[in-house]
Amino acid sequence: MVSCAPFSSPDLNKHVMQDHHSITLLLNALEQQLRQQQLWQNEPPAQRALASQQPFAIDTLLPHAWLQWLFLPQMRRRIASGIALPKGFEMTPYFEEVWQGQSERQPLLAVLKQIESECGHA
Question: Can you spell out the DSSP letters for 21-74?
């Protein structure tokens, strides 16, 4: 009988740290793309806009604003706090739809796909 031993605590911590490091690099790349494409906002939206219950806050925020003010901070807080990152999510189809025909958004979409991929198997 073959036994598959679970990660020991140091191995698990190392694995999580590597995952968090690669996700952090991708989050930084996402921020860089938002800035390069002049989508980065200096002023936060109203608090009620951030409190939307709709997916991607479609009723209160532009797509890039959701990335900047909700997605990036939430992911960075989870990493800083050592909280598990979400697994197996998809957000790229939404952004492909809203940025359809905007070829300049392809670098943003590429980073989003990398984030999804990394979180899918992390």
Answer: HHHHHHHHHHHHHHHHTT---SSPPPHHHHT--SGGGTTTS-HHHHIIIIIHHH
Query: Is the residue at 17 inside a domain?
Result: no
Position 114 in a domain: yes
In this structure, is residue 3 part of a structural domain?
no
By the 8 A CB rule, do 44 and 72 touch?
no
Q: How confident is the model over 64-87, as pLDDT tens digits?
A: 999 999 999 999 999 999 888 899
User: What is the per-residue pLDDT for 18?
Assistant: 55
Q: Is 72 within a domain?
A: yes
Q: What is the pTM of this model?
A: 0.83
**Token couple for 67:** 């990335």
For the chain, how many structural domains are there in total?
Answer: 1
Closest residue by Cα to residue 117 from 76, 98, 89:
89
- Residue 29: count other Cβ atoms within 10 Å of its Cβ: 16
